[in-house]
Amino acid sequence: MTDSPSPSGRPKTAKSFAFELFRPVLFAVCVIALALGGLLLAHRSSPQIAGQERQPPAAPAAPLPTIALAEPEPVPPVSFAEFKGFGDLKGGKDLGGFQMKPPSPAAEPEPPANDLYELTLRLERGDTVEKMLADIDVPEADRKQIAEKLKGLLKKRKLATGETVELMMQTLPEQPDAPRVLSLSIRPQPEREYVVARREDGGYDAEEKIYTVSPRIVRVEGVRDGSLQQSGIKAGAPSAAMVEFIRAMSYDVDFQRELKQGQKFTVLLEQLVTSDGKVTHPGRLLAGELRLLKRTVTVIRFRAQGGADGFYNPQGESVERSFLRTPMDASRLTSGFGMREHPILGFSALHAGVDFSAASGTPILAAGNGKVAMAGFNGGYGLYVKLQHTQDVATAYAHMSRLGPGIKPGTTVRQGQVIGFVGSTGMSTGPHLHYEFHRGGKPVNPLTQKFSMRATVGGKDLARFQALSRQYLAQLKSAPAVADASSTPPQQKTSPVPKAPATPQLAKGN
Ligand SMILES: [Zn+2]
Asked: Do the Cβ atoms of 197 and 182 come closer than 8 Å?
């Protein structure tokens, strides 16, 4: 500090000399600086930039994740942020954030100019219903009233971002720029709808509609095409119900040798439906029937007194057995997978096991409770696991790509636990599971083993079970079918209650 001279201490003569010499240069520099400064200021206050800086949390340009409510409109939805940005420029506000109801592809002509029309709007982040109404030019007095009525209805409840607001609108020829809201409806839960409707005198009424939810039994019938699970979903059954169905079957069914493409299955589902026909639960599996090459297998859900839900055959025997017939996640099995490279072999003196052909990585399940006797590489078997179940019975699994979590010799495993994943290690021509069933130390044909059942319905439960079983068996044939649901599930949510042609994808009645 001390040894550097202060600017004022510099020799005056040198400074003035330099000043004289460089005056034109300095002038030029000043002019440029001014110009730059001006530009910078102008740029700062330009509406575009200011707009970007101002648009607060409400303005992510990308559509919010709630867009997943998949609206039927073909036009990609424009976020409210974009809509606001362009509204002023274009002088029209009918751009984004909402669209007119789809004119229902087939018919319904455009509404006449002074007539009623429907709008479906979505609440964006940081949005309010009142703001939304202002954006579509609803007169202030109306939107104030509506907002107030709605507030009274909602009490303290908050509307979620992405919530759908259904509006019935009307424009009058004398006031084309000030549309009326005839009714506004918000339905945050299937059981609950908030409606604000316009009276003759221009005031608004508020109403909370409560819908009762009740069970409805429907039937889904399908034909196996690809994996059983996918075929079920395609036919209109929820994925969870199909997984349950397949699990209940895998104790008894050899999915690879007993099931072929084109075979029929039926599942009986209990849906929950509101009094106005909205499905609030797609269906819990009550019963199911699967045609196999040589037999038909039926499972029935039943809860024994003091027990948990389980599946039983119509004779009242639990489907659960001490061993799984298909020791794999059968919902992932597609018959025909890899068959050209690797024929699905069954038991023979030479082969000593059965093969399940499946995609690499398909989970392999412990066929029964037991202990890991071996886990590791084993010659031509590749990565291999052997489970000891009883002194007499053991199972073995070969060609795995990797072991299941925690699988090592000595570990106890439970039936259905993942012990490894399908691979093609060792002497293998393609991904598959080679499965062996050992009795007294020798491989035997697992398909011919009679596996003992876990439980049967008895005592006080028996009469109840028999009645239920009769009912379900009849309903598997006669319950109303879920109409072709393959095209609908995602639209359910945004379709307006009474009008949408797409909504009632489910057969009415019970
Ligand atoms: Zn094999």
From this structure: yes
